[in-house]
Amino acid sequence: MIFNLPQLGWKSCFQQQIAPDEENICYPARIAQIHRSRCIVWSNKGIATFEIGVFSDPKNMAVGDWILIPNEGERPLRIFERETVLIRKAAGQRKHDQLIAANVDTLFIVTSCNQDFNASRIERYLALAAEARIQPVIVLTKMDLTDDVDSYKNKALKLQNELRVECVNAKDKSSLAGLKTLCTEGHTIALVGSSGVGKSTLINNLTNADQLTAEISEEHGKGIHTTTSRSLHLLHDGGILIDTPGIRELQLSESKTGIEDTFEDVLQYLGYCKFKNCQHQTEKGCAIKTALNAGELDQRRWESFQKLQNEQNQRNSFKR
């Protein structure tokens, strides 16, 4: 299969990274899949596979990256400087941060209209997007399984100013009209969300993919995890979609700016306490406590902000 570069998300910021003497002897390609021992790339020359070992720094590769490949030779020259990148702290005991996806324009934060909806988890994804300077869109799936869609939508809208929220039934293509306005040529979208919220069904109806899907469990209201690796997909209406495995544990990487941008309602009170070293516990003149008691600041939002800030502080302490 042959791809045209604009279809794959090629932009002037990448073209500018090709030196004049490289233009006729090299070509750009986009990483479509990364496996344990090999990497699959798409370009205007078709689909190619490289052994991971030919890359100088395999751990610094992500689906969505652009690489420069010589016309003659088996070793890619380099990875292009990224426009954006999604990074999370590696789960478990692994020390290095984990690249989720590169060169993303819009992040679809997918959750469902049932017990999977978790405002604090969505805030983590919003902070992730804000840190990467990627536009977030909350996609509420399984709207057909509830009589209270507006309640879920209103909860989501309160999480950030001017936040776009789309309610869909992933099995009904007609309900995806709002999402398709973002699926234009050259636009790259990444999907994130916990397992079983309907990402695979959504992908099947936005692309030509045939992802495995599993029915929702009646016991806990969740689907079964079916996606196991990150991959590129061509959108019906143009552009690229990057799928990600269900993320059970999202630990944020360096996200100070992202957290601040996500919690502007909290930040407006910080720095206005009577004492500079206020711990926001029992101190007199605490602006946070005053706002909480007056109902001007939501208790859950404050606790969520504190939790993310504490994780950042622990991360920074560990780095020292």
Classified by CATH, the class of the largest domain is: Alpha Beta
- The count of domains is 3
Weakly predicted, low-confidence segments: 211-228
Helix content: 10-25%
Mean pLDDT: 86
CA-atom Rg in angstroms = 21 Å
Give me the CATH superfamily of the largest domain. P-loop containing nucleotide triphosphate hydrolases
Looking at the structure, the CATH topology of the largest domain is Rossmann fold
CATH architectural grouping of the largest domain:
3-Layer(aba) Sandwich
Strand content: 15-25%
Tell me about the biggest sheet? 6 strands, mixed
Characterize the structure shown.
With 320 residues, this protein is α/β, with parallel strands linked by helices. The protein has three domains: 6-79, OB fold (Dihydrolipoamide Acetyltransferase, E2P), CATH 2.40.50.140; 85-243, P-loop containing nucleotide triphosphate hydrolases (Rossmann fold); 263-319, Ribonucleotide Reductase Protein R1, domain 1. Helices cover 24% and strands 22% of the residues. The chain has helices at residues 12-15, 119-132, 149-157, 177-180, 199-206, 256-262, 264-267, 287-293, 299-319, and strands at residues 26-34, 38-43, 46-51, 66-70, 78-79, 85-89, 97-102, 106-112, 135-141, 164-167, 188-192, 231-234, 240-243, 251-252. It has a six-stranded mixed sheet, with helices on both faces. It has a five-stranded antiparallel sheet with strand order 3-2-1-4-5, with no helix packed on it. Strands 7-6-14 form a three-stranded antiparallel sheet. A hairpin with a 2-residue loop joins strand 2 (38-43) and strand 3 (46-51). The protein is globular and about 70 Å long. The termini are far apart. The model is unreliable at 211-228 (pLDDT under 50).
